[in-house]
Design goal:
It is built from 25 helices and 16 strands. The chain is of the alpha/beta class and about 650 residues long. The strands form 2 sheets. A 9-stranded mixed beta sheet has the order 3-4-5-2-1-6-7-8-9. It has a 7-stranded mixed beta sheet with strand order 10-13-12-11-14-15-16, sandwiched between helices. It is globular.
């Protein structure tokens, strides 16, 4: 099968943003003397590409997972070996989690880490995955999150016994300690020369500072730091917080940039109205970074005012443009009302000065075509009978599995003509599936719940498979009500399914992804199982899902888009109110949210119409799933990250 050229293979932003290689002197000079600054610059320029070691630093690992960040860390580093001499992964050992072993690997050393005025003994462990060495480091009193209700989330310091624990200060403490530990661990391992430390998210972003201090102090010979942000979240950072890892903590050391008027990009300006899709996973928000959004940006006042969040402080210290995990999401961070008003208002200056690029993730599953070569070949000639037959077989397998799988903890249940024998379900009745974290601030389970109410009873069946954190109980309760109201149409499995999960993903007529915002998304997962997707047009989902209404010949699902009313500032404030609503029903007070529900209901109706009334179109859609999934490739991602590493080493 000939693979389709990716619609953004000529992506222009990477080269243009990587031209922003100049050292951010306005941020560096208040921190370092001229001699120290020249030593840092020389150490960065001394990195030899031929012998370069990339240290992929990430908060998650095989024993501590939350969303898609671990999936990236498990897949990308092996591809990065194509652009460097050596790749290692570095991650904290979260020993308080339910699945954490006593020893996560071979002990390869210990090191003393200076932190908050004391020396902390830190143990280094090693294991190997996909031919890449992982180094985990742990210390008593750090990385001890119990993991929330299921004991698995490294960002969640609550537990069943203590559900009200505030995770925010503990997560910041652990992130700062990790940043302090990384240069020490590198020195202990002998990784001190030709090093690019590739840190992920705000938790490890302070490594941009600690690596530079390690160069000044002679711990590292030649090194640079680059940053990838997998989400829009940030964290407040005070002088007292910074003092735990550096003597350079005073307000005067962290000024805001003084910019000319035409360089300022305030939240809610006309750029927000310019948002549009390209034509061609995570942690909770910590603190309220938007609280500083209204501070003046220019004039003498800007020099006095201190930068107030982790990203605001650390992005100017990284050595190349910041990256994020899809090209569309990079644009969203600079232009979408939700981002520029609610999440990233305070970051627009540093994004503009340092640069921001999107590097698309690859596949999170081993690539495999969900249909036989014979079915694919026939479909390429316009004969979809075989591929439709194979899809019906997947549906039959799903219905048989769900008929047998009836755990007591499930909510609701599906019925076929009043019977719980789902193998009797009429072929024309579509089955939708939604899966993932029930994150009230991102994934949109509540949007689907409201959309289900708008569809007539018995028109479709819904399989809901959420992982439910403690803060989402009200949103799970909403689905309990839906299951009671729509008996036979809805089943919820609020836990990891022992059986039937993959069968459901493969047999579903469509999977649903109504994310409020989505850095990358997971549409490629159901594609590889043989199911198209109904999705909100946001972030990476815009790139993954080809809309049947816009491009029926290439369609892989249905995209719907919110109909925003008012200025970008007004829309952004509605988004903020929606995300801050603790009660899912109260979100219906906001016109923007009502539009999300209405458009999703219309998208579901479109999907139902295609399935029931145009089997040729549905068969064509099935034939496009695998080629579309294969446009996302870790080797291409690695090549683009390689360009970022090159830019970091040549920064002036």
């Amino acid at each position: 099968m000939q693979e389709k050229k990716h619609p953004m293979s000529d992506y222009p932003d990477l080269d243009s943003e990587l031209q922003k290689t100049a050292t951010q002197y306005w941020a560096m000079q208040p921190l370092f003397s001229e001699g120290e600054l020249q030593k840092i610059i020389a150490a960065r320029r001394a990195i030899a590409t031929a012998s370069r070691t990339v240290v992929y630093a990430v908060y998650e690992n095989r024993y501590a997972r939350s969303g898609g960040i671990f999936a990236v860390a498990e897949n990308l580093p092996s591809a990065l070996r194509n652009v460097c001499a050596q790749v290692v992964v570095m991650s904290p050992f979260h020993g308080g989690l339910r699945k954490a072993p006593d020893r996560p690997g071979e002990i390869v050393g210990q090191v003393e880490v200076p932190f908050d005025g004391r020396s902390v003994t830190t143990t280094i462990y090693r294991y190997e995955s996909q031919r890449v060495r992982w180094y985990l480091f742990g210390a008593a009193g750090f990385f001890d999150a119990p993991g929330g209700p299921n004991g698995e989330d490294p960002y969640d310091h609550s537990s069943a016994a203590q559900p009200r624990v505030d995770s925010n200060p503990l997560q910041l403490r652990d992130g700062l300690f990790a940043a302090a530990a990384i240069p020490c661990v590198l020195q202990a391992l002998g990784i001190v020369r030709d090093v690019v430390v590739h840190v992920q998210d705000w938790q490890l972003a302070p490594t941009a500072l600690t690596v530079k201090e390690a160069i000044v102090d002679g711990l590292l010979d030649s090194a640079a730091v680059v940053l990838t942000s997998h989400n829009p979240y940030d964290c407040k950072l005070t002088e007292a917080d910074l003092a735990k890892i550096t003597r350079r903590s005073s307000d005067a050391s962290w000024p805001r940039p003084q910019l000319e008027a035409d360089q300022i990009r305030p939240a809610g300006d006309a750029d927000g109205d310019a948002w549009s899709p390209l034509a061609d996973r995570g942690t909770p928000v910590v603190g309220d970074p938007t609280a500083i959004a209204d501070m003046p940006h220019g004039g003498a006042d800007a020099v006095v005012r201190r930068r107030g969040t982790v990203y605001e402080c650390m992005i100017p210290l990284v050595d190349a443009a910041v990256s994020t995990v899809s090209r569309q999401f990079a644009r969203d961070l600079r232009t979408h009302p939700l981002q520029v008003v609610h999440f990233t208002s305070h970051l627009q200056q540093v994004f503009g000065l340092r640069g921001l690029v999107g590097v698309d993730n690859g596949l999170f599953m081993q690539p495999h075509c969900p249909f036989t070569p014979d079915a694919v070949e026939r479909a390429s000639h316009g004969d979809f009978a075989q591929i439709l037959s194979e899809k019906r077989a997947k549906r039959a397998t799903m219905l048989a599995a769900l008929t047998e799988y009836r755990p007591s903890a499930r909510i609701g249940g599906l019925l076929a003509e009043g019977s719980d024998d789902l193998t009797r379900l009429a072929d024309e009745v579509p089955v939708f599936m939604m899966f993932g974290r029930m994150d009230p601030g991102q994934k949109g389970f509540d949007v689907l719940a409201q959309a289900v109410r708008k569809l007539a009873a018995n028109r479709a069946k819904f399989i809901i498979c959420p992982m439910v954190p403690a803060r989402a109980e009200a949103f799970l309760d909403q689905w309990r009500v839906i299951a009671h109201q729509r008996v036979g149409d809805v089943v919820i499995f609020p836990f990891r399914m022992d059986q039937g999960y993959r069968e459901s993903m493969a047999g579903a007529t469509f999977c649903v992804m109504p994310s409020l915002h989505e850095p990358f998304g997971a549409a490629t997962e159901p594609y590889l199982e043989g199911s198209p997707v109904v999705a909100h047009a946001t972030g990476g989902l815009i790139q993954q899902v080809v809309d049947a209404r816009e491009n029926p010949a290439e369609a892989t699902g249905v995209l719907y888009q919110v109909q925003g009313v008012g200025t970008a500032e007004q829309q952004g404030r509605q988004w903020r109110a929606i995300l801050e609503s603790a009660d899912p029903e109260s979100r219906m007070h906001y016109p923007l949210y009502v539009s999300l529900v209405h458009e999703l209901a219309a998208g579901l109706a479109t999907a139902i119409g295609i399935y029931q009334q145009d089997r040729q179109a549905y068969g064509r859609m099935l034939s496009r799933l695998y080629p579309q999934a294969m446009t996302f490739d870790w080797n291409r991602a690695a090549a683009e990250y390689g360009a970022i590493y090159d830019a970091a080493a040549r920064a002036g």
